[in-house]
Amino acid sequence: MQKIIILDFGSQTTQLIGRRVRELGTFCEILPYDRFPAGDPDVIGVILSGSPLSVYADDAFRPDLSAVFDRYPVLGICYGAQLISYSFGGRVENSGTREYGRALLSEVDSDCPLFRGIEQGSQVWMSHGDSVTALPEGFRLAASTDTVRNAAFWNPGRKIWGVQFHPEVVHSVQGAQLLGNFVSGICGSRGEWTADSFVETTVRQLREELGDGKVILGLSGGVDSSVAAVLLNRAVGDRLTGIFVNHGLLRKNEFGDVLADYRKLGLNVIGVDASARFLSALEGVDDPERKRKIIGGLFIEVFNAEAAKIPGVSYLAQGTIYPDRIESHNITGKVIKSHHNVGGLPKDMKLKLCEPLKWLFKDEVRAVGLSLGMPRHMLFRHPFPGPGLAVRIPGEVTPEKVRILQDVDDIFIRSLRSEGLYDDIWQAGAILLPVRSVGVMGDERTYDYAVVLRAVTSSDAMTADWAFLPEGFMRRISNEIINKVRGVNRVCYDISSKPPSTIEWE
Ligand code: XMP
Question: Up-side HSE of residue 144: CA atoms within 13 Å toward CB?
Answer without folding.
Answer: 11
